[in-house]
Amino acid sequence: MSVIEMRRIKREYRMESKRGKKKSNSTAIIVRALRGVDFLADEGEFVSVMGPSGSGKSTLMNILGCLDKPTSGTYTLDGIETSKSNSNTFAYIRNRKIGFVFQSFNLLARTTALENVELPLFYRQKDRSDKNKTNISRKERAITALKEVGLKERMDHFPSQLSGGQQQRVAIARAMVNDPAFILADEPTGNLDTGMTLEIMGLFQQLNDQGKTIIMVTHEPELAAYTKRIITLRDGEIVSDMPVTERCNAFDDLAKWKSDHALLSEDHS
After folding, report:
1. Coil, helix or strand for 214?
2. Which ranges of the chain does DSSP label H, i.e. alpha helix?
3. Is the N end or the C end of the chain the one with fewer CB atoms within 10 Å?
């Protein structure tokens, strides 16, 4: 079953170029960020989206995340045609269907890990179908999500009391708490060191093995090697769509990295 189905997606931006001081001298320049993209992702896939600067990665991510609409084409997400949706439908889709994970974590500094994970559930409560959900129910769901990412003992900690890797785990728990159709991760390890990067990629692989659909935007081929499929964009078009034939295991690489660093520490002691 396709969770994501994009057909002939185009995104064009109109920019005014002025020549001289008179308005009549201005000319319109059309920037074609996406040029008819076809992209399908089935339930349980782990796809990385790659490409150089200006390739259309960010534009594609914004449309995938229902943060922007295509100029033309259709985008069906978990059975919902989003291309002509209004702002209320977009808000519903973002809350229910997509779990966002960003490079900068985007946690609220003055709230605990548990409260950060509960946040999407407060927005969801506005829906009539969730009127009977209690605070206890929200809390239990947030606790379950934090346990899944290995932060059972850190639920009452504030972001400043957590490492970068732990903060990203909170962000992943927040993305999962509504059981979305897919997780959209934008450079999720960009602010992390090697060890924490491997931890997060291992967590993504673990979640994917449990059936979670993940789309990850990255510019690092070594991270794409942990996914199952690589989409490459250039000049607003998909130039390759290839399965990962020799997939790396992040937890195995993490164990090796820790072992190598332990040996280095012994050599310097």
Report:
1. strand
2. 57-64, 87-96, 113-124, 135-148, 164-176, 194-209, 221-224, 250-267
3. C
Q: If you write DSSP's letter for every residue of 66-109 in order, what string do you get? A: TSS--SEEEEEETTEE-TT--HHHHHHHHHHTEEEEETT----T
Question: Residue 191 belongs to what H/E stretch?
Answer: none
pLDDT tens digits along 150-160? 999 999 999 99
CA dihedral 154, 187, 240, 212 (to 10 degrees): 20
Question: What's the pLDDT band for 147 if we cut at 50, 70, 90?
Answer: very high
pTM of the model as a whole: 0.90
pLDDT tens digits, one per residue of 59-85: 999 999 999 999 999 999 999 999 878
Q: CATH class for domain 98-179?
A: alpha beta
Structure tokens at 218: 């990255």
pLDDT digits (tens, 9 = 90+) for 102-115: 999 999 999 999 99
Query: Any idea which residue has 């989003």 for tokens?
Result: 82
Q: Which CATH superfamily is domain 1-81+180-269 in?
A: P-loop containing nucleotide triphosphate hydrolases (3.40.50.300)
Residue span(s) of the chain under CATH 3.40.50.300 come to 1-81+180-269, 98-179
One-letter amino acid at 265 equals: S
**Which residues does 92 contact at the CB level (< 8 Å), separation at least 6?**
127
